[in-house]
Design a protein that fits this description.
Number of strands: 0
Largest sheet: none
Shape: globular
Order of helices and strands: HHHHHHHHHHHHHH
Distance between the termini: 27 Å
Structural class: mainly alpha
Number of helices: 14
């Protein structure tokens, strides 16, 4: 029953955001723009999506200390992105399962995924801060706040890395706070801190740190190239294409973070409309760009994800079912007051 409710809520959220994104824009004009897109540049965008997936698999394999082959890492990452298009977004859990089948310890796979999330979040915040500082229509106060937020994200990341190297200091600080704020003892802060510190352990090795950060930058570069290619495909030449690419991809990334939606339909298109209008692009073209980018992304993930499933010898339903079961177990463990004691 809970899954049905979650699915219905996801459909409702997507419908509401899609209505907001399309409000005041003739769908016929959007469709005409997409139909006139240059097929060659669309092909380039598909190629950059593929390379982007490969770079993410290289990053992940390095975080696993090369415990799996390059092709195995590529296929598993592709399956992850495919499964994440569905409402329950169990792709990361499915990745841990497939990694375990390949001989990687569950904790190693889980911590590597945590590191990826932290690095991606950090870079998205930084790129967004830089992009907004270049948008003329953004008020100076808002731009300055965003830049400060980006700086704060870097500082927090550095502090977390320090705690990863000196975990006893982090736990001592938490204990000190819990002694003075008793209500904190009722919440699983200790377990959360342990997970974060353990997850960042790979980055305390400078070789792995350079590998992870370097490939994260490369993977985001290809994400920007994907959108840049589609801007060229639509023949948009009266905007700053680089700025539009960075702003569009970063805002789309935040839209994907909304936990309840169907393949981010609605929030994704809305994010691209906001990005386009911020750089003086027409609403019709901005939405055309949003639908085109979203469509190419889903198609790319679907093609390579299905190939990955065939390569790994697992069915889509099997992977999805396991991911949903594990998500439910994790949710129950989080809610249960005795979970920390066990």
């Amino acid at each position: 029953m809970r899954r049905i409710i979650f699915l219905l809520v996801s459909l409702l959220v997507s419908a509401v955001f899609l209505w907001l994104a399309l409000r005041g824009v003739p769908l016929a004009d959007v469709w005409d723009s997409i139909q006139q897109a240059n097929v060659l540049w669309i092909g380039v965008s598909f190629g950059s999506i593929t390379i982007g997936l490969w770079t993410r698999s290289v990053r992940w394999r390095g975080l696993l200390d090369d415990k799996i082959s390059p092709m195995q890492a590529f296929h598993i990452v592709n399956i992850t992105f495919l499964v994440n298009q569905l409402p329950f977004r169990a792709g990361e859990i499915a990745r841990s399962l497939l990694a375990r089948r390949a001989g990687v310890p569950v904790m190693t796979a889980a911590t590597s995924i945590l590191v990826e999330r932290l690095l991606d979040t950090l870079l998205v915040v930084i790129f967004l801060a830089v992009a907004l500082s270049r948008v003329p229509q953004v008020p100076d106060a808002a731009s300055q706040v965003t830049v400060l937020f980006g700086i704060a994200a870097v500082v927090v990341f550095i502090v977390l890395l320090f705690f990863a190297r000196r975990p006893h200091i982090a736990h001592n600080i938490l204990t000190w706070l819990e002694d003075r704020i008793p209500v904190m003892q009722r919440l699983p802060f200790s377990r959360l801190l342990t997970h974060i510190v353990e997850g960042l352990q790979p980055l305390t090795n400078w070789h792995r740190f350079a590998h992870a950060v370097g490939w994260t930058l490369i993977s985001w570069l290809f994400s920007f190239v994907t959108l840049y290619s589609l801007i060229l495909a639509l023949g948009i030449d009266d905007v700053d294409r680089v700025l539009t690419s960075v702003l569009g991809v970063t805002l789309a990334s935040f839209s994907i973070a909304i936990p309840v939606s169907v393949a981010a339909i609605g929030p994704f298109e809305g994010a691209l409309r906001v990005a386009g209008e911020a750089v003086n692009m027409s609403s019709e073209l901005a939405l055309s760009l949003g639908f085109l980018l979203h469509g190419m992304t889903v198609i790319g993930y679907a093609i390579w994800g299905i190939i990955g499933l065939l390569n790994q010898g697992v069915s889509f339903s099997e992977t999805l079912k396991f991911g949903q079961q594990q998500s439910a177990l994790q949710e129950e463990a989080t809610i249960s007051p005795t979970a920390d004691a066990n």
